[in-house]
Amino acid sequence: MTNFNSTTPLNVAFQGEPGAYSEAALFEYFSGKAAAVSKARFEDVFDAVEDGTCQLGFIPIENSLAGSIHRNYDLLREHNLHIVGETTLRVRHCLIAAPGASMDKITKVISHPQALDQCRGFLNRWEGGINAEQVYDTAGAVKQLAETRNQTTAAIASRRAAELYGMSILMEGIEDDEANFTRFLVLSTEPVDPGKDAKTSILVCLKNLPGSLFKALSVFALRDIDLSKLESRPLIGQPGEYQFYVDFAGSTKDQKVIRALNHLEEYATLLRVLGSYPRKSF
């Protein structure tokens, strides 16, 4: 079982540079009692947990404005890790530039694709138009500005990233909606005791038969199990076939959940529990 009460700080891998939103959410979730380990790619986060370099991984999985982070759903299938926790972070974006830069001189904005999507309205309203360029990380975009001191490029990232790299904030709160939240998952090689208020995430592939999705969902409805998420992803190498990620209230220790999953196996070619963990709502 995963133990969050260790007396020594846990090494927790996250994707991005120091100052990234993932790092901020990580520190908030662990109340500052974790050592954040920066990784360049999401794949590196999963690998670090699997090879024991880090005890835990911390990844974003969905945003209330931009939607799901599909790559991380795919990685959940590719790696044999357990989801052991979740949290949400209110994301407030800033337009950041090198000291001395001004709005009227900016011709390009760089940031992570999710951040650009979350500020699409702001960018579309830019007088004279703006060139939006994707980079691997929000804080990494600010770090790049700090290295180049380019006066015509701005970055979208957090206030902390601006302060960390000594950059200036031109505007704050540029996201398209103030109800901008990102949900994060905590990953481990071992499961966790989810407690009474639990959520379970599963991966299921269904038999290609008429009504199979309806029947699969009915196993939860028949037992009054509340579904909070249904995400479909194409099966690589099998055109027209899909895998489904499902989040629902309850734990794999609950009898009605056990019965629902046993029932679901009748319609599935693959059923895998990704984790039961303490639930947190947006």
CATH level 4 superfamily of the largest domain: Periplasmic binding protein-like II
Helix coverage percent: 25-40%
Largest sheet features: 6 strands, mixed
**Computed CA radius of gyration, to the nearest angstrom:** 21 Å
Under the CATH scheme, the architecture of the largest domain is: 3-Layer(aba) Sandwich
Number of domains: 3
Describe the global form. Answer: globular
Number of strands: 15
CATH class of the largest domain: Alpha Beta
> Multimeric state of these chains?
single chain
Task: Describe this entry's structure for a reader.
The protein has helices spanning 21-29, 42-50, 70-78, 113-118, 120-124, 138-148, 159-164, 212-221, 255-264, and strands spanning 10-15, 34-39, 56-63, 67-68, 82-90, 94-97, 108-111, 131-134, 153-157, 168-172, 181-188, 198-206, 227-234, 242-249, 268-278. With 282 residues, it is an alpha/beta fold. The chain folds into three domains: 10-91 and 180-188, Periplasmic binding protein-like II (D-Maltodextrin-Binding Protein, domain 2, 3-Layer(aba) Sandwich); 94-172, 3-Layer(aba) Sandwich (D-Maltodextrin-Binding Protein, domain 2); 198-278, Alpha-Beta Plaits, CATH 3.30.70. A hairpin with a 7-residue loop joins strand 13 and strand 14. Helix 8 (212-221) runs antiparallel to helix 9 (255-264). The mean pLDDT is 94.
